[in-house]
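**User:** I keep going back and forth on a fold encoding question. It is easy to fool oneself when nobody else works the same problem. Could you pick a protein and write out its sequence and tokenised fold? Could you put it straight underneath, so I can go through it closely?

**Assistant:**
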Amino acid sequence: MNLMKKLTLKNLKLNRKRTIVTIVGIILATALLSALVTLVSSFQYSMIEYQKQKDGDFHVKFSGVKMSELSEFKNNRNIESTFETMGMGFAKLNGCKNEDKPYAYVMATDEAGFERGCFKLIEGRMAKNEDEIVIPRHLKTNGRIDIKVGDEITLDVGKRYDSNTEGVISENSAYENEAETLTDTVTKHYKVVGIMERPSYGMEDYSAAGYTFVTYSDELAAIDNGTKSEASEADTTLTVYSRYTKKALRNKDAVTADIIGVDEKLFEKANNSSVEMSAEESDRFLKEMENAKYDIYMNGYLISYECVFPIDGSFKALFTVAAVVALIIILTSVYCIKNSFNISITEKIRQYGMLASVGATRRQIKSSVKTEAAMLGVVGIPVGTMSGILASLILVKVVNALSAGWLNFALSFHTSLPALILAVIMSIATIYFSATGSARRAAKVTPLEAIRNTKEIKIKSAKLKTPAIIGRIWGIGGVISYKNIKRNNKKYRTTVTSIVICSVTFIVISYFMSMAFSVVGMSYASTDYNIGINMSCKKDIDIEKFSKLLSGIEGAEDYLVGAGYDFDVSKPEYTKEYGEYCRQVYDNSEDVSQMFLITVLDDKSYDKYASDAGIKNAAAGAILVNKCTFDVYNENSSKYVKKEMELYKYKAGDTIECGYNVYDDASSDDNAAEGNTESSTEDNNAVEGGTEISTEDNNGYVDEETINNGVRKTVDVTIAGVTDKVPIGYKGYSNTLLFMNQKGFESLWGDGKNGNEIKPGYASYSAYVVAENADEYQDTFEKETEENPEYSQISFYVSNMDKEMRDEKSLFTLLGVFAYGLIVVIALIGITNIINTLSTGMELRSREFATLRSIGMTDKQFVGMVRLESVFISVKALIIGVPLGILISYLLCVMMNRMDDAIIYELPYKAIILCIVVVIMLIYAIMKLSMTKLRHNNIIETIKNENL
């Protein structure tokens, strides 16, 4: 070790406080980078595992593959692995309550299929031989057939045959009712060994006519083990689930097109939502897909999670947000290290000048600075990297411990070596460039200037002129403080910049985390209930009595009963944005009528809803939901994106003229009979007068034929309040929603004005329940309604949405853990950086403070001086930081809108208020602690001390 290195090491030991502060800065910055990449890697890995569990561990499903063609998939270099299922056939289920799903569809697979398919076992075990079978949970909750583990069942398995087309019906085709029969049936005996969740859409189509039963296949197991050749069962048809290699996944469209034998460019264009196809290309693509070798299904979410580049899918916005957040954090980390290092180097300019005066060359001085940086980095970077990884691990473990039992899956801790290497390289580069700049500055200073150390202080008479108000308020201490800030402008600029960057980072990241939730919330259909009940009856239903039935069943955490009536409003008072949207959708028509759905809620649910919405005197009228999300064409991205917009200009106290139709007795009876059909809670369809009105398809538009069908009446509805909140069960509606209680609704027909003594036609009745145990609640409900003669004339259609609700809560919990975990980490790093900057600055100025006290400055004047500096630093940092944070968050929101989803910018006022409070309190606390410590220092010893 040469003399300069020894001197550098000795200097680091002598200046322990300064050395420790700088190392802490490096540790924190490196920890932030490593924690960021680890959290992002863990987030991605957890989402991948979640999607594998939910939809299966495959990228593309190929249907209709002959057994003899299986080797083409096994030997394809673009396919990493496969698993197969074999359709055994359909069997009629006796006693099934779901008329559209009367079959059991028997599927066979082997160990690989059970392991990597979306077969989530909830009771028992998977099948191990061909005499065992696993049944789905929704066979009981939807089909109302109660088969338990251990039961033995007999199924007559055959093919679905369509007598009209005289052909076999495919496995995913909807039930054809009288047109189909089962042929070529074979009797099979099975023992039920397990119950699983309903397989996802990729394995069981939502419109499929059969419940998926899964058994074991010795044939598939033998082929996978290599003990049997595919050629021996050449005519057997399989479904192959393929997992692509990483390279193939980046070119998934070309690889898939090649396998199914269609035009690659046309297939890529059809699957690229940002590229518009011509009518000729669309027709050609449809013809090619009709003649394709296999039918396919792509596991889109899993592909988008695993295929980071190129980014595709509905989560493109989230990946963009993550990239923006990462960039902000990296810039903050760079500044954190540079700030800590520059404070240390700047105060040692005098030492470097002394070395130069005794013969040290510029090269040696530069080398000394870089050596010091390397020594600090050797200690700080490994500790920081391990600290970041450890912090991420602890976060994941704590969340898993706290969420056991209610989170639908366990969070996964995962580190990415390339990402960690990148974080380390970034830290090394930051230290190197920070040290290089300081070394260059130290080497340029002449020995005399360095020893005098006057270069940092710029004195100009105009700048040193102090406003009179400062002297009156803070006295001589305030005047000295003001002049000191002007003289040492560089040092104060460093402190202010540090606080500004931390403030901006916190505001921007807080905003984008909230925006990420908004994006995901719009991408996923919200399910805020687990039991949905649709009712059909020829007479009115007493919703108050029915609500008592629901609340009286054990386990009801929340519930709502509603009776929906459809009204039309001619030329409503649109907002400008929604009016333009309606005119674009409905062929630029200036006379666009809208369908308003008035839902009468039970009293308890209505009062709770009004309270949650913050609406007083809600009983005096109707509550209008004035926000909705629509698919809007984005010209910048050339595709449809979801956008939330305000609908109307109505406010509390306004009235809306609502039109409706009434019919004579004969037509009314006919309409009621026709209306007595199943209404799906998933599709949110309402039936009135025999005309089905889909809230998904027509977006609330009312055509003249519907309006003029029958005798038209009108009624004036008073708006009691306007909100953007909806009660449970009504998220995702695209109709205009109005909610009333029963008394308010009945009062509309009591005055007889405008002939409105005749009420609208039959209502569509529905109820939504959040039950502690959805299965038990459904069993009890159906038992009570079946035994009660009062409900014998009502047809109930119960949808058990428990799995969907749990899946959605799990997704949002996962996002929340990593989003708020990231905010907490950034907040802690920012706070530590501010503490580091301020405490170091105060420590390094201890000789200056001791000198002022030695010439007569009192404690009161000293306190006033430091407090004024705190005020100047806080105010200046917040005046710059808060507007800059708002501006950057707004610009990034604009950038997001240009690329993808249309998001309304909302001021992150909570983050701004929290940032202001924390900065003021933090600076005050640090300054106070520093003042207490400095006042107890010995003045003479402090002035003499060179190693601060």
Notes: DSSP finds 31 helices and 24 strands in the chain. The first strand starts at residue 60 and ends at 66. Confidence is low (pLDDT under 50) at residues 665-708. The CA atoms of residues 52 and 724 lie 35 Å apart.
